[in-house]
Amino acid sequence: MRRNRRTLAVIAVLAAVLAAVTVEVTGTLASAGDPTNPATAPQPQYDYDDPAKAFVVELDFGSTSAALVRASVVRARSYSHLGDPPLLRLSLVDEDGAAGDSVNAWDPRWYFEQKPGGGERMVRRDGPGTLVVPFDADTATMTVRDLRAAIDLATVDLRPAVREFCLAHPIDTECVEADLAVTSTTASGDTLGVVGTPVTVQVAATVANLGPDGPLDADVVQTVAAAPGLTVIPAGRTFDADKLGVGTPAKVGGDYTVVCTSPGTRTVTVTTSVAPERAKVADVKPANDARTVSYAIDCAVPVAVNAEAIQPSTVRPGVRAPLVATGTCGAEAHGTVHASLTDLGIQNGTTEICVRGRAGPGAG
Questions:
Q1: CB 194 within 8 A of CB 302
Q2: Domain limits, CATH 2.60.40.10, in the chain
Q3: Distances from the Cα of 278 to the Cαs of 164, 173, 258, in angstroms?
Q4: Rounded mean pLDDT of 141-150?
Q5: Is the pLDDT of residue 308 over 60?
């Protein structure tokens, strides 16, 4: 069969086009050893220096809530949530209360199981499950919301996990390292008190950032331990030591009201401690984070003395002098009572018994 000239011309044109395409495609092929060519690319190497980290949150899921099992930080990149169905919503909030990332996530309660006749179906079972999100050292909480039921299953505090990680890796680029310390603490006030009468004690402390990083915000807490026979108000105080820089200590303190409830020498102990406000701050030297100061107070019994009722002739060794309760013998009246008893020939030791509370009410 003979081809006409028109047909041969068409075939020639098509051949030329194919040759041009072939040449162009061949010209764009990657050269040998080019990593963009799957046929010649070198074997992928794992990036052990990848700085990415992730929160791993293990929960025990119920039908309407989830209980935290453990939250931790791992040095590995979080898997992507792109394309995850709208079953759960994971919402992160930072330590300032600002909203962070919010992503959909697969609900670990849902499983696929094979149907008897073939195919598969989704089945929900309560129990343990794990959620993973990218790490951010400023993250405070993660709320897990069931989008189908429109309820929050759990709000997980991630700050303990951040602090644990940064204490273990203080030089990590997302952590801050600072040695916080209570460098001094003092207590001052009246060392003599009367049962039932308030005494003011001033407690002061100095806190410092010994570096290397700063400035940073710190929380200072004072707690009071009172011996039996004393009441102290308040039982403690809290202070903010904001923007605490290296080499620029801060002073904190306040007044405490101490009331004797029984006679004798009593002791008040005040402990001042400092801690970083942010979870990402690693204080790797906890030994100097707290300091204690003790304050002793002599509690006197309020005893009244009617000096006119004491006859000098009856005050002699082995004889009890009658004392009549008509007023207060406390710290303020000490001088007057002392003078009156001295005029009657009673030794100073009797006055000390009254003032220091070694004699109970009604003692002679």
A1: yes
A2: 176-300
A3: 12, 15, 34
A4: 97
A5: no
Asked whether residue 291 carries a pLDDT value surpassing 80, the answer given is: yes
CATH no., domain 176-300: 2.60.40.10
In the sheet with 230-233, reading across from the earlier edge strand, the strands are 230-233, 250-260, 198-212, 176-189, 281-282
List beta partners, residue 254: 203
Residue linked to tokens 């929380």:
219
> Is pTM beyond 0.90 here?
no
Distance CA 88, CA 17 (A): 55
Sheet of 151-157, strands arranged across = 99-105, 88-94, 139-146, 151-157
**3-class SS letters over the chain:** CCCCHHHHHHHHHHHHHHHHHHHHHHHHCCCCCCCCCCCCCCCCCCCCCCCCCEEEEEEEECCCCEEEEEEEEECCCCCCCCCCCCCEEEEEEECCCCEEEEEEECCCCEEEEECCCCCEEEEECCEEEEEEEECCCCEEEEEEEECCCCEEEEEEECHHHHHHHHHHCCCCCCCEEEEEEEEEEEEEECCEEECCCEEEEEEEEEEEEEEECCCEEEEEEEEEEECCCEEEECCEEEEEEEEECECCCEEEEEEEEEEECCCEEEEEEEEEEEEECCCCEECCCHHHCEEEEEEEEEEECCCCCCHHHCCHHHCCCCCCCCCCCCCCCCCCCHHHHHHHHHHCCCCHHHHHHHHHCCCCCCCC
What are the tens digits of pLDDT across the range 296-306?
999 998 765 55
End-to-end CA distance of the chain: 150
pLDDT at 38 over 70: yes
Cβ(103)–Cβ(84) below 8 Å: yes
From CA 235, how far away is CA 177, in angstroms rounded? 32
